[in-house]
Amino acid sequence: MKILIIDDSRSVAEVIDLMLNDPTANIIWACNGEEGISQLKSDQSIELIFLDWYMPVMDGADFLKKLSELPHEIPPIILMSIDNLEKIQSQIQHVNIAGKLSKPFNKRQLLALVNNFRSSSNK
Q: Which residues pair with 77 in a beta bridge?
């Protein structure tokens, strides 16, 4: 599985990789939404996106707005934030969010979302 993690903290990508503990997972890190858009434009085999809400250059809200410009199907998105995720719900209604993770999150929460995605994508 190819996973794009868009977060200004590389350590978050490393923690997700460690928690997944999946040698078949191909983790790609982008430090902001702008880099994330570039990755999605150049690699249409990405299957899942983890998106941080607060980042410099291009934050999660602006990233979600830019997605509509991509000519291909958008992978499921798991939204991550230190903020109350319900507080930003109104800004994400136009996008299909596959899951939400409040930071800090634990391995059980992460694996539950990823396993839910895997089971729904196998249908």
A: 49, 97
